[in-house]
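Lecture 7 notes: from sequence to structure.

We start with a single chain of 283 residues. Read the sequence below before looking at the structure.
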Amino acid sequence: METNKAGTLYIVATPLGNLEDMTFRAVRILKEVDLIAAEDTRYSKRLLNHYGIETGMISCHEHNEAKKSLQLIEALKAGKNIALISDAGTPLISDPGYSLVKAVAAQNIPILPIPGCSAAIAGLSVAGLPTDAFLFCGFLSKKQQKRSLALEGLKQEKATLIFYESPKRICSMLQQAIPILGDRNACLAREISKLHEEYLRGTLGEILSTLTLRPQVKGECVLFVQGASPPAQMTQEQLEELILSKPNKNRGTADLAREIAGACHLSKKLVYDTILRLRNIPS
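Now the structure, written as tokens:
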């Protein structure tokens, strides 16, 4: 009989709000494991009671994760199976768990996901924005300057952007995003799967106008913003005008072609050949 076999750490997704969104497999795993590491044991107790899950719980949140990871790893090494859950959705996705998973992985202890709810993916599926490429940005900094720098760094991103935000800061975040990203198409998902579930679609400005008319915004928010549009294609005539407007002193053809091609998102060969033709230089 094999001895000293490590247990498995299960990363279990739980409902965002509606308890019916729990998967059969997730319920079975939570019943079968030896221990559940929960972000908030008091909050998770409601879920466990609903499904008749009697497995013991231990808290594992952002303030004690480093300390609890050592304890949980020892239990895993002793052959115990452990499930990690957050208050709602998939653990680690803007929730605690990264430090634990990193430490467990370093010990070559098995880690398995038990898929289920994720606010980012659930909202994206109904946002009405492109889904072929998306970038999860999580919560931006609470500090305006850091948030502004983050938005500046994202304004050229072509993928759909996904932000988590608290109801207290969503309006200020929108006010800051509009002058940086532009008044793009967006969707604000609020209270996904809960009683007051809502999806506001329109431009960022229209969503902001709707929210500012309310005395208060309630519920966790997920903001989906359309990615940057590709630059308008320059016509041949516009390209020639641009080349002729450039100072000609000591400018190598290759250097000028590289500069214009990069700035205008054009083929370097196209720009290079156009420069040669305008300068009457044989190619």
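Residues 7 and 80 are 5 Å apart (CA to CA). Keep this in mind for problem set 3.
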